[in-house]
Amino acid sequence: MSLEYRKQRILAVLYENLKRPQPEVVDSASIAEALEMELSETRQVIKILNDAGAVESDLDGRYSLITRQGLLWLQEKSL
Predict the structure, then answer these.
(1) Each residue of 21-45: pLDDT tens digit?
(2) Alpha-carbon distance 54 to 73, whole Å?
(3) 32 and 73 in contact (C-beta within 8 Å)?
(4) Cα 74 to chain centroid, rounded
């Protein structure tokens, strides 16, 4: 699975969180479980997304929220 594909899948999970009545930070363990990815791999990709400004996360990549930039990137990749 390519890095771009993993980024897109993680952003899609974070986007789904925005549809909830009260979106909250999403823990990386939940993302890893939903995507059937290793937790360490999930956190690594979240850190990359954080560095790119697509998500806001803590230093360890344990909790994340998608940013406007992440939404735009996801929309662009979905076209």
Answers:
(1) 999 999 999 999 999 999 999 999 9
(2) 8
(3) no
(4) 10
